[in-house]
Backbone:
């Protein structure tokens, strides 16, 4: 068995980033920038009023001011503000030449239809200066940034209606197992519903990848070989579930070897999720995940997710913290690194969930984090710090 971090290092070492492509701004979410994004104008592009009020020369505050015009956002000023003059101005409007401050409407005294006076001589300037946020040519977003919703307005502001990003990998899923039926079927006493594929498609969707589901394949060597060969030819990554352990009908490892794939990982020292295969065939890759749903979920999060991101030239770093556990916790065996489901309570404590093992998908469904017990550690006491990984 290879330990978790060593396995991850080997897997990521095989990743060859895909080429870039240009996509519309509307389709750039969850994509990885292939170039630095620079802005082509100053931001703000002009001295901008930060509030509704009146704009004038600061030296004239306290004097009777003649209102020469009203400036709203999107209107070009008509006058240069001179001595004892002002303009009524709206938030976001261009501050006219000659003016160097804006005071609030609440700080104004109406003298007549054409004249006002500022009643707060200590008013702030209240002007967003041209270029104070960014200057023409500044890098706003760096290459290899994963584009999230908060980045979208930055791209728009920079005029990036078309964005250069790395391609997404084409990923296919095959469920292996004669005992499996689809979720809409009522299983016979010797069958179970295929939950892994639904789970994996959802995990891919979280990455912005639309996985291709190739269905359930029975544990028959020739049929599996044919389907795996076809999927490897048509995809960048093939994800298989089931058939990767050491049983008589666990055929995947031998089939991958027969197809000329190089096996990089054959099993890992994590619990749950020991049986797992990772193999490569040039620029094509295959993950053989456990048939148990909790194991395959955890294997995807630990290994597949960072690998797929690496193909998109992005270094994935999950949120991880050390937090106190709120109850004693024991396990029977300690030869593998344990990942157990838990919640975080209002005191930022780790609350272990009832968990019966790698097939107990309900035990995972309420989890917010996975907490770790290292190899060689069988128990922790209430209040001990444990390492948690947010889901």
Residues:
């Amino acid at each position: 068995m290879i330990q978790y971090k060593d396995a991850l290092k080997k897997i990521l070492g095989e990743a060859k980033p895909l080429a870039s492509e240009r996509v519309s701004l509307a389709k750039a979410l969850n994509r990885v920038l292939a170039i630095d994004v620079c802005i082509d104008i100053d931001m703000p592009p002009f001295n901008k009023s930060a509030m509704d009020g009146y704009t004038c020369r600061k030296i004239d505050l306290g004097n009777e001011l003649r209102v020469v015009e009203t400036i709203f956002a999107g209107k070009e000023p008509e006058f240069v503000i001179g001595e004892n003059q002002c303009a009524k101005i709206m938030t976001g409007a261009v501050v006219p030449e000659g003016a160097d401050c804006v005071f609030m409407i609440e700080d104004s005294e109406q003298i007549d239809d054409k004249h006002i006076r500022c009643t707060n001589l200590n008013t702030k300037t209240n002007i967003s200066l041209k270029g104070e946020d960014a200057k023409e040519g500044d890098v706003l977003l760096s290459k290899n940034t994963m584009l999230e919703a908060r980045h979208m307005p930055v791209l728009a502001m920079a005029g990036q209606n078309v964005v250069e990003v790395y391609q997404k990998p084409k990923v296919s899923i095959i469920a292996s197992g004669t005992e499996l039926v689809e979720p809409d079927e009522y299983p016979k006493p010797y069958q179970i519903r295929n939950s892994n594929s639904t789970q994996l498609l959802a995990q891919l969707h979280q990455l912005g990848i639309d996985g291709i589901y190739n269905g359930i394949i029975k544990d028959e060597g020739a049929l599996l070989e044919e389907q795996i060969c076809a999927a490897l030819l048509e995809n960048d990554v093939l994800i298989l579930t089931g058939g990767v352990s050491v049983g008589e009908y666990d055929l995947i490892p031998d089939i991958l070897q027969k197809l000329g794939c190089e096996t990089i990982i054959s099993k890992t020292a994590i619990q749950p999720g020991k049986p797992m295969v990772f193999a490569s065939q040039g620029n094509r890759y295959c993950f053989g995940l456990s048939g148990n749903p909790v194991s395959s979920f955890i294997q995807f999060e630990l290994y597949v997710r960072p690998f797929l991101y690496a193909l998109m030239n992005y270094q994935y770093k999950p949120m991880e913290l050390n937090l106190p556990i709120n109850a004693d916790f024991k396990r029977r065996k300690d030869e593998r690194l344990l990942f157990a489901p838990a919640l975080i309570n209002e005191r930022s404590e780790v609350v272990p969930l009832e968990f019966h093992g790698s097939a107990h998908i309900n035990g995972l469904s309420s989890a917010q984090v996975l907490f770790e017990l290292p190899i060689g550690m069988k128990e922790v006491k209430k209040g001990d710090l444990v390492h948690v990984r947010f889901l």
Q: What stands out?
A: The chain has seven helices and 28 strands. Residues 204 and 211 are 6 Å apart (CA to CA). The first helix runs from residue 4 to 13.
